[in-house]
Amino acid sequence: MDIMDYLSLLSFNTVTVAIVVVLLILLVSRSLQWPANLPPGPTGYPIIGCLPMLKNRNLLDVFRELRGKYGDVFCLKIGPKYTVVINGSKALKEAFVKHADDFSDRPGGYITEVILKNKGFGGSSGERWKRTRTFSLSTLRDFGFGRRSLESRLQEEVTAYVDAIEKLNGKPHDLKDLTVQAISNNICSITFGNRYEYSDEKFKRLISLFADNFRLVATAGAVMNYPWVRFLPGDVFNIKQIINNFDKIMAFVTGHIEEHRSSLDENSPRDFIDAFLVEQQKHGMEDPVFDDMNLTVVVMALFTAGTDTTATMIRWAILYLIHNKPIQDKLRQEILTVVGTSRLPSLADKPAMPYYEAFITEVLRMGNIAPLAVPHGAKKDIHFRGMMIPNGSMIIPLLDSVMTDSEMFENPYKFEPERFLGKDGQLNGKEKNVIAFSLGRRVCLGESLARMELFLFLTSLLQRFEFLPESPDKLPSFDSTLGLVRASKDYSCRAVKLS
Ligand code: HEM
Question: What is the CATH number of the domain that holds 163?
Answer without folding.
Answer: 1.10.630.10
